[in-house]
Amino acid sequence: MSYVLVINSGSSSIKFQIVDPTAGAEQDPLASGVVEQIGEASGSITVKHAGDKTKKEMAFANHTEGLTTVIEELDAIGCGPAQVELIAVGHRVVHGGTTFGEPVLIDDAVVEDLKKLIPLAPLHNPANIDGIVVARQQLPDIPHVAVFDTGFFAELPAAAATYPIAAEVAEEHQIRRYGFHGTSHEYIASQVPELLGKPAEDVNHITLHIGNGASASAVRGGHPIDTSMGMTPLAGLVMGTRSGDIDPGIIFHLLRTADMDVDAVDNLLNKRSGMKGMCGSNDLREVHAAADAGSEEAQLALDVYITQLRRILGAYMIELGRVDAIVFTAGVGENDAVVRADALKNLEMYGIVIDEERNATRGDGARLISTDDSAVKVFVVPTNEELAIARKAAAFA
Ligand code: ADP
């Protein structure tokens, strides 16, 4: 059996999975886990394998130590590179800029090009590159493949990708809508035609990828025509800790009047906003519980969350003209029946009718939650970004 090691290297964490790229979405990865709190005084590594989960507390000075430990721990459970046939390493890279759309086989020149993209994603790409450099040192004999979060949206129509600012400034600073979560949106787009029993070119759909990060896409015939994240993953829907769309004038107002510098405003909008900023928790389970217990802040936060979802949904329905399906995915989309029902409430005149019982019934795989006669089919489809990355990386093996 051949496997792909999928690495998602963040600023203080490394998530990893060993995936069979030929197996379906229902597979359990051979092994998976996460190294957390890299660079801090105390950290941990968690490894899941064959139904067991072990967590060890230890400090990691940097990504090299983190990934070395990952490989040692995989060796210890019989899943190391010498024990299983690893045919490729797939690296999640957040920003491909205008340089990269499709996945690319990583060599030294690609690493240099990735470094040039750091200004576009200063919070994400440096950690992605660290992961790539270290993994190439540790596993030099297998192909390493970069899969870009922006990739699926590389060919957004110009009208959707262009920001209405001075053209020469946009050009010089590579300012455009890139979109993110592309691996997930593309994966879902690959499932919808099958769920509808229609050829991909005939399917128009909207995907709501709502987890801690959240983004929507409008897809026509398999090609995205719009998406809610922008030049950065800060735009669009209300998220766990990110604001999503706000009036850009708010930033100047804060810089001028709130004794905040650029980094403080960046931190505010990325880490202290969204659901957490409005009501103290970015976990929707806690927010619902607080609202049910009478918290007005939690209820208002939910109302803002739903209002923004419906704004973007409405925009994409008009952009697409005809919508065959709406798909919910990621942590909130897959699990939160209340958010799904509220997001699509009272849309009967647009052909959208949720079946309450189907919506309330939990399930593992892809499932229909609209009524049989709803003109627009509504689905919950679990996303699987690691499998999608593994499949793309395996193509280079
Ligand atoms: P990330 O963007 O970090 O990948 P996920 O897609 O894993 O996030 O989503 C995590 C979020 O999903 C949690 O913060 C929580 O708000 C939400 N979530 C998870 N399970 C449930 C549930 N049963 N009900 C409501 N929300 C849930």
Short description:
The protein has 397 residues and is an alpha/beta fold. The chain has 15 helices and 14 strands.
Can you characterise this structure?
The protein has 15 helices and 14 strands. The protein has helices at 63-76, 108-116, 125-138, 158-161, 167-172, 182-196, 249-257, 262-271, 274-279, 284-292, 296-320, 330-335, 337-343, 356-360, 385-394, and strands at residues 2-9, 14-19, 31-36, 44-49, 52-57, 85-93, 104-105, 144-148, 204-210, 214-220, 223-227, 325-329, 367-368, 377-380. It has an 8-stranded mixed sheet with strand order 5-4-3-2-1-6-8-7, with helices on both faces. The model has no long low-confidence stretch (mean pLDDT 96). Adenosine-5'-diphosphate binds next to helix 10 and helix 12.
What is the 3D shape?
globular
What order do the strands of the largest sheet run in, or round the barrel if closed?
Answer: 5-4-3-2-1-6-8-7
Q: Any guess at the CATH architecture of the largest domain?
A: 2-Layer Sandwich
Structural class: alpha/beta
Q: Find the CATH superfamily of the largest domain.
A: ATPase, nucleotide binding domain
Radius of gyration from CA coordinates: 21 Å
Counting DSSP H or I runs of 4 or more residues, the number of helices is 15
Bound molecules: adenosine-5'-diphosphate
CATH class of the largest domain: Alpha Beta
Measure the end-to-end span: 14 Å
The residue fraction in helices comes out at 25-40%
Question: Mean of residue pLDDT?
Answer: 96
Biggest β-sheet description = 8 strands, mixed
CATH topology assignment of the largest domain: Nucleotidyltransferase, domain 5
Q: Note the beta-strand portion.
A: 15-25%
SSE string, helices as H and strands as E: EEEEEHEEHHEHHHEEEHHHHHEHHHEEH
Count of structural domains: 2
Runs in which pLDDT lies below 50 for 5 or more consecutive residues are: none
Number of strands: 14
Protein name: Acetate kinase
Main location: cytoplasm
GO molecular function, one term: ATP binding
Keywords: ATP-binding, Cytoplasm, Kinase, Magnesium, Metal-binding, Nucleotide-binding, Transferase
